[in-house]
Specification:
Layout lengths: L7 E5 L4 H15 L4 E5 L14 H21 L6 E4 L5
Parallel strand pairs: 1-2, 2-3
Length: about 90
């Protein structure tokens, strides 16, 4: 649960979209001390070229990657990031 006011809410359909498309902008906001909330609409269990990748494993990999990004942003500024996972894509 988020208890502080968010300055910025980043909505993204997939777990790695914000990092691959707007990481520089988020980094600037972190340096400025903005409170950022990520809303990730899916758990990322789809969208790989690996034929043997199970959806559950892909979702776990993407969750770890987003967690690493969250930790990086949080330790580099006054940023308090929260991640809200949505429903899986069917």
């Amino acid at each position: 649960m988020i208890t502080e006011q968010a300055h910025i809410i980043v909505f993204t359909p997939h777990p790695d979209d914000a990092e691959s498309r707007m990481a520089g902008t988020v980094a600037r906001w972190v340096r400025e001390g903005k409170n950022i909330v990520y809303v990730v609409c899916t758990n990322g269990d789809k969208g790989t070229n690996a034929p043997n990748m199970k959806p559950e494993e892909l979702a776990r990999i993407r969750e770890r990657a987003v967690g690493c990004c969250k930790a990086t942003w949080s330790e580099r500024g006054k940023c308090s990031c929260a991640i809200q996972w949505g429903a899986p894509i069917f």
